[in-house]
Amino acid sequence: MRPTAGGIKQHLNHLLAGLGSQYEIAICGPEELRGWAGGNPFYPVQIVDGLSTAGDLRAVWQLSRALRRIKPQLLHIHGLKSVQIAVPAAKLSRVDNLLFTAHNCLPKPDSLWYHVTRGAVNRCLLRSLTRVIAVSQTVGCELTELVPEERVVVIRNGVDYRRFEGICRDEARKSVGLGSGDFAIGTVARLIPEKGIADLLRAAALLRKILPQAKFIVVGDGPMRARLEQYSAALGLEPYVQFLGYRSDVPILMASWDLFVLPSLSEGLSLSVLEAMAAGLPLVVSDLPSMREVVIQGKSGFCSQPRDISGLAAAIIQIAKDPAKARQMGEYNHQRVRRSFGIEQMIEATRREYQLLLEEGAKL
To answer: Residue 197 and residue 243: Cα distance in Å, rounded?
Structure first.
């Protein structure tokens, strides 16, 4: 796996906990993940984001050496950059059973050069995979343009909703310093351009006088954090917006909030949205195909068009001004997650794919 944080790492935590007792699992990834791997065999592979010919060739060599030692029956790959390393490494080490989980929509730069070079390379690499798991129907449909349809299976992300139950809201609000009159608007995201946090700050600037009781809380870290904090200060939002960085107490934080907002520009299937639903929060999210698989307009919350700052602000006001409706939306979301997005369904579906691939491999 590549250097990662946020949703992908949570996904891997769930798989490791759910499947670790049934399979012998070895982990290959950057050295900083060694501690995270726990007691599982760990092989360092220094994968870096972005294009680096020398770095990528070194990573291919490191992974191929590891695979020759491990001799895995199945290689499960996470992250598109990892595909670019793992496929050639698997060919060099004669590992044939390759499973890839696509956590996000594929990049679609307008550049013709991208389509001629990296786009073509990605297409070739993806066609080398035995099976591809898409975390949403939207991602799955995209993949079938590049991979034979029979190789693509949709297994939606799941969350451990029990972590968000039984938390006292009053105590949670007190612990994070929220007053009884505050309207807490939270988001959890890796701070990268695709999450649209700059648009959330613009909406906060619009709402500063219209909704003075609102407090915006941004949880998460990433390469854009310093820039976003500077932008928030330039908009005069410092007393109005808090950047908390990475937090391990997300269930307590969410229990203290009144609304969850995520104005993404692109999404596979957001785990933080599912967690907010598990916490019983109403939602305001971008009107993206993957979001519409989860968020039911008017029942779960509201969808606004990406980059539509005034529409985003209007949706937030609509929920803030109708507490009874907001509570109904939160309860609907909690029940929907329990019914359709529990972690058990995701783990069991993944286990079935493992078993099918291992059985198919044994017949070769």
So the answer is: 11
Q: Which of 304, 286, 288, 296 is nearest to 333 (CA)?
A: 296
Quote the CA–CA distance of 346 and 159 in Å, as a whole number: 9
Task: Write a three-state SS string for the chain.
Answer: CCCCCCHHHHHHHHHHHHHCCCCCCCEEECHHHCCCCCCCCEEECCCCCCCCHHHHHHHHHHHHHHHHHHCCCCEEEECHHHHHHHHHHHHHHCCCCEEEEECCCCCCCCCHHHHHHHHHHHHHHHCCCCEEEECCHHHHHHHCCCCCHHHEEECCCCECHHHHCCCCHHHHHHHCCCCCCCEEEEEECCCCHHHCHHHHHHHHHHHCCCCCCEEEEEECCCCCHHHHHHHHHHCCCCCCEEEEECCCCHHHHHHCCCEEEECCCCCCCCHHHHHHHHCCCCEEEECCHHHHCCCCECCCEEEECCCCHHHHHHHHHHHHCCHHHHHHHHHHHHHHHHHHCEHHHHHHHHHHHHHHHHHHHHHC
Per-residue confidence (pLDDT) for residue 364, from 0 to 100: 52
Mean pLDDT rounded to a whole number for the chain: 90
7-158+343-363 and 161-340: identical CATH topology: yes
Burial class (CB in 10 A: 0-12, 13-18, 19+), 60: buried
The model's pTM: 0.84
Are the C-beta atoms of 48 and 55 separated by less than 8 Å?
yes
For the chain, domain boundaries:
7-158+343-363, 161-340
Superfamily of domain 7-158+343-363: Glycogen Phosphorylase B; (3.40.50.2000)
| Residue whose tokens read 């791997």 | 37
CATH topology of domain 161-340: Rossmann fold (3.40.50)
For residue range 324-361, what is the model confidence (pLDDT) as tens digits?
999 999 999 999 999 999 999 999 999 999 999 998 86
pLDDT at residue 113, rounded to an integer? 42
pLDDT above 80 for 216: yes
